[in-house]
Amino acid sequence: MNNFWTIVSHTASGRLKAKSFFISTIVIMVLIIGITNISTIIDLFSSDDASQEMDHIAVIDETEDANGIAEMLAAPSDEGSYRFQLIEEPVEQVIEEAREGEYAGVLQLSGTAETLNAELYGGDSAFAMGVEQEVQRIKEGVLTSELDIDEEQLATVFQPITFEQSALGEGETVETEAMEMRSYFTILGVSYVLFFIIITYSSMIATEVATEKSSRVMELIVSSVNPIVQMFGKLVGIALVAFINILSIVVALIIGATIGGNNFLDYLSGDFIDISLIGYALLVLVLGYFLFGGIAAMLGALVSRTEDVQQAVQPLIYLAMIGFFLVTFGLNNADAAFMTVASYIPFFTPQLLVMRIGSGVIAGWEIVLLIAILLVSVVLVNYLAARVYKGGVLMYGKLSFKEGIKQALALSKKEK
C-alpha cells in the first residue's frame, strides 16, 4: 500500500509542479474571472459619448395626419432607450449624414396613425426591435387617447391572466421554463467537463506511462512495484490533478462573482445549475474518468515513444466527441429511441444518463440499471487494462493495437 501512495504522490506532484500546469491554470482562472465580468469590462471601454451617439436617431415625417406621432417621438422623455430628432431634410441626405456617423439610424414614417409604416435605415436586429417597440408604444398612446380610454382602463385590458400548470398524475411534478433552463445548462456543463477530462487527462495518463517507458525508467519501477499497483496509482494521481484543476475553476468563478458584486451561492440557486443533477453528475464524472482513464493507461503501456501518444488516444477522443454531439443534438429529443439505446453503451452512458435524467424521460429503475452497467464496465475495463498494462510496460516496438494487446496479455500470463 505504501508503494501505491508513493506512485500517487509522485504522479500528482510531478504534474502540479510543472510550469505548464501552473501557467495554464492561471490563464484559465483569469479568463473565467473576465468572462463572469464581461459586461463590466465592456462598460469600462465604452465612453458616454459613444453610447449617446448610438441612441441618436433621425426621424423623417412623411405621415398623413398621423396625429403628431413623430413629434411625440422627438419630445424629451425619460421613457425609452433612444433619442429621436425630427429632421426636415430629404431622406437621402439624412441617410448620407447617418453614414458619416452623425446619427445611429434614420427612421422614415409614412401613412396614418391607424396604418402607420416605419422604415429604419441602419442598426442591427436588436436595435431595430427596440426602435419598433418605441414607435409602437407611441402609436398605442395616440390611438387610445383618441378612443378616450384612460390609463386605468388600458391597464385592465392588458392585464395578464393568471395561468397555472399541474401534472396529470398524483405525485408528479411539472417542470417550469426556469427548471428546464437549469437542467439544460447543467447537462451541457457536465457533458463539456467530461469531454474536457477525457481529452486532457487521458492524454496526460498515456503520456506519463509512455515517458517512463521511453526513458527506460519503467524497467526499474516494475522491478520494485507491481505494475497493477503502478497503473492505479497513476490513475489516482492524475485524478488529484484533475480535482485541483476543477477546484481552481470553481475558485475563479467565486472570485469573478465577488468582483461583480454577486454571491456565488446565487448561481447555485439561480437559472444556471440544477442542484438535483449535481449528485448524478459527480458520480458519472468519477466513473467516466476511470472508464476512459483505464483505457488510456492501457494504450500508454502499448506506446514506446511519447510521439505516438496522440495517435494512441485518438479513439478515446473520437468517443468523447461522439458523446458530446449526442448530448448536443439530443437535448431537444431526449426521449428518442436512438438516445435510449445509445445511453446503454458504456462509453456514452456518463453524458447521456445525465441528459436523460435532466430531461425527465427516464424511470428510476433505469437510472439504477444504467449506473450498474457503467460500474460493471469500469471494473471490467480496468481489469483488462491492468492485464494489458502489466505486459505492455515491458514491450517496445511499433504501435499496433491488435498485436500489441495480444502480446501484452501473453506476457502478463507469464508474469503470474
How would you sum up this structure, described in words?
This protein has 416 residues and is mainly alpha-helical. It has 2 domains: 55-157, 3-Layer(aba) Sandwich (D-Maltodextrin-Binding Protein, domain 2); 176-415, no CATH class. The protein is 69% helix and 6% strand. It has 18 helices and 4 strands. The chain has a 4-stranded mixed beta sheet, sandwiched between helices. Strand 1 (56-63), helix 5 (69-74) and strand 2 form a beta-alpha-beta unit. It is elongated, with a radius of gyration of 31 Å. Residues 47-54 have low confidence and may be disordered.
Provide keyphrases for this structure.
single chain; 416 residues; mainly alpha; D-Maltodextrin-Binding Protein, domain 2; 2 domains; 18 helices; 69% helix
> Number of folding domains?
2
Beta strand %: 5-15%
Please list the strands of the largest sheet in the order they lie side by side.
2-1-3-4
SSE arrangement, N to C? HHHHEHEHEEHHHHHHHHHHHH
Helix content: 55-70%
Largest sheet: 4 strands, mixed
User: Unreliable stretches, pLDDT < 50, 5 or more residues?
Assistant: 47-54
Label the structural class.
Answer: mainly alpha
- Whole-angstrom Rg: 31 Å
- How far do the termini sit from each other? 20 Å
The best one-word shape is elongated
Count of individual beta strands: 4
Instruction: Count helical runs.
Output: 18
Taking all residues together, what is the mean pLDDT? 79
